[in-house]
UniProtKB/TrEMBL annotation:
GO MF term list: ribosomal small subunit binding
InterPro entries: KH_dom-like_a/b, RbfA, RbfA_dom_sf, Ribosome-bd_factorA_CS
This protein's name: Ribosome-binding factor A
Higher taxonomy: Bacteria, Bacillati, Bacillota, Clostridia, Peptostreptococcales
An individual GO BP term: maturation of SSU-rRNA
SUPFAM superfamilies recorded: Ribosome-binding factor A, RbfA
Keyword Cytoplasm annotated: yes
Source taxon at top rank: Bacteria
Length: 136
């Protein structure tokens, strides 16, 4: 069954609220880089909300980058109480959903797919198959 309208609205409202908290209230030094909340999915009964976090790191070393991502997740987990309190204060809910923080890896996956496609050696498909109207 598809995601309900209420869960979608609640997820977007939580995403917006966490974004504002990142700018104004959360002062954790582990969240000082480029960190954003890409999506929030709320379960159908509203008891859990999965918060997908994107952390853009500047280091090229894989170990350091992974450590930075783990630090970002740890910072969000330590700020969970503040975030839940603000959700309860701003959004009128009987029960504030339990927050689950996960890393959003869609950017790395997209970058990987782009590298695989470029490694195939396929040039511009349109230029090989269809001649331009000017050439005729």
């Amino acid at each position: 069954m598809g995601k309900g309208y209420r869960q979608g609205r609640l997820g977007e409202e939580i995403r917006r609220l966490i974004g504002e908290l990142l700018l104004r209230e959360i002062k954790d030094p582990r969240l000082s880089g480029l960190v954003s909340v890409s999506a929030v999915e709320v379960t159908s009964d509203g008891s859990y909300a999965t918060v997908y976090v994107t952390a853009l790191n500047t280091s090229k070393d894989q170990e350091v980058a992974q450590k930075e991502k783990e630090d970002v997740l740890a910072a969000f987990k330590s700020a969970k109480g503040l975030i839940k309190r603000e959700i309860g204060r701003s959004i009128k809910l009987r029960h504030v959903p339990e927050l689950i923080f996960k890393l959003d890896t869609s950017l790395e996956y997209g970058r990987h797919i782009s590298q695989v496609i470029s490694s195939l050696g396929i040039e511009d498909y349109k230029s090989e198959e269809e001649p331009d109207e000017e050439d005729e």
